[in-house]
Amino acid sequence: MEYTLKVPLSKADVLRLRAGDVVYLDGTILTARDRAHERLLSSEKIPFDLSGAAIFHCGPLMRKNKKWAPVAVGPTTSARMSKMAPELLKKYDIRAIIGKGGMKGVVDALYEKCIYLAYPGGCAAIATDQIKGVKEVHWLDLGMPEAVWVFEVEQFGPLIVGIDAHGNDLYAEVAKKASEQMKSL
Amino acid sequence: MSGVITEKQVITAVVKLLRKAETELPDDVLAALKAARDKESNPIARMQLSAIIKNADFAKENVIPICQDTGVPIFFVDVGCEARINFDLEEVIRKGAAKATEEIPLRPNAVHPLTRESSGNVGPGFPDVIFDFVPGKNVKITVMPKGGGSENMSALRMFTPSEVDDVKRFVIETVKNAGGMPCPPVIVGVGIGGTFDKAARLAKKAALRRLDKTPDGFEQELLEAINSLGIGPMGIGGDTTALKVNVECAHCHVASLPVAINIQCWAARRATVTLEG
Questions:
Q1: Is B190 within the bounds of a domain?
Q2: Number of folded domains in chain B?
Q3: Distance (Å, whole) CA A112 – CA A108
Q4: Chain B contacts of A102, Cβ < 8 Å?
């Protein structure tokens, strides 16, 4: 199935999606990678709202003339954030995690709560074209790739539901089949 | 003075090279991706490959980076034995990389390995410049901007001579364990022999090689085994996990068998320029 959803996302939005569905997002997404995750976990108060949010594993390339503008914005390897995801999802009402390559050991943390969406890796040129505005930037002291960038997006995708909120994980299924095949080689 | 390669020529060439490499996917890589899309039987995988091809076309048309990870620029320099250079070529290549960072622009990707403090795109030992000597008067510079996601999935193992038969399994297993993380379909660069460091260098050169050279039997066997895993584009299943396996060998110590595997994402960016001496 193919869906266009508006962020912030509700629990109902998340629950209707199944692994393998194709999603396009409209609205606001926030970037967060390694160091932003660490700070999100250690902070008591944060300067942005994560209720119903879609966070994006992304270290963008930005350029500032008078205002910040995106040059190349695309997904980074999500697996690096796997260990931090369960605690992050306990602490904040994040509804979608966007990245690439899948995450390990997060099926339980996502269950009935959040989905993992995969943007085609390396496709920053088309992703940047789907960004219609840079709303805010936070934690720029972490450096350009590690800061939290708040983007306004339109028809952001194609996003594949890689892990749904019902316990289905495309990556785990593929890995299982690959391991079985490996044994026969 | 005619015949002398100048600092300015090198800086201009490096900026031009990096711009081309970052924004134009090499024709052989694009052709391999199109062939993979055309034979892909899994619709989700085909959608990934179509997005990749659309992205490459869009980046070229608009002269913007293909991927936001503009990578670690690795320079391979073939220096003609009769070339005339009267400056520190490595230092000037670094100056070119700094200039390209501003002009293209490139993402500031260099950090101290432990403090993680950013140093832009130049710093101690960064970017890496590798020299080879060749006949002639010219200097040929190739840049390979290498993404972090695929580099992280690389591996090196020191086998013993009795373990020759385990080499193939090590290559396949490394690709399997990487799953979707290195942005498949990947190019697998394999370096066999040499020493600990030489094997890694061979693997890097293998990953840099063009994709349109006919594979030898060993490379083809590895490619077929890897693609039988079904990992597919972006690790969500499909027929093409690797576009190509390239193997480079060097003789090694009688007691050793080093094997290195360098994984290259589909965005196999590279560009070459020759400065005439």
A1: yes
A2: 1
A3: 9
A4: 179-181, 235-236
Contact (CB, 8 A) for A63 and B68: no
Q: What is the DSSP string of B216-277?
A: -HHHHHHHHHHHTT---GGGS--S-SEEEEEEEEE---TT-EEEEEEEE-S----EEEEE--
Q: Per residue of chain B (277 residues), give pLDDT as tens.
A: 568 999 999 999 999 999 999 999 999 999 999 999 999 999 999 999 999 999 999 999 999 999 999 999 999 999 999 999 999 999 999 999 999 999 999 999 999 999 988 898 999 999 999 999 999 999 999 999 999 999 999 999 999 999 999 999 999 999 999 999 999 999 999 999 999 999 999 999 999 999 999 999 999 999 999 999 999 999 999 999 999 999 999 999 999 999 999 999 999 999 999 999 8
B202 assigned to some structural domain: yes
Residues of chain B with Cβ-Cβ distance to A73 below 8 Å are: 68
Domain that holds residue B204: 149-264
**Residues of A annotated catalytic, as ranges:** 37
Provide the ipTM: 0.92
Closest listed residue to residue B235, CA positions, set B265, B201, B262, B271: B265
* A contacts of B62 (beta carbons < 8 Å): 125
CATH code (residue A152): 3.20.130.10
**How many domains does chain A contain in total?**
1
- For residue B89, what is the enclosing H or E element? helix B89-103
In a domain, B212, yes or no: yes
- According to DSSP, the β-strands at B186-193 and B242-250 are parallel
Is residue B176 within 8 Å of A178, Cβ to Cβ? yes
- What residues make up the domain containing A166? 2-183
- CB within 8 Å: A59 and B107: yes
Give the A:B interface size as CB pairs under 8 Å. Answer: 163
Nearest CB among A35, A123, A144 relative to B51 is that of A123
**Given the structure tokens 């594993």, which residue do they identify?**
A57
The first and second tokens of residue B61, run together, are 């048309």
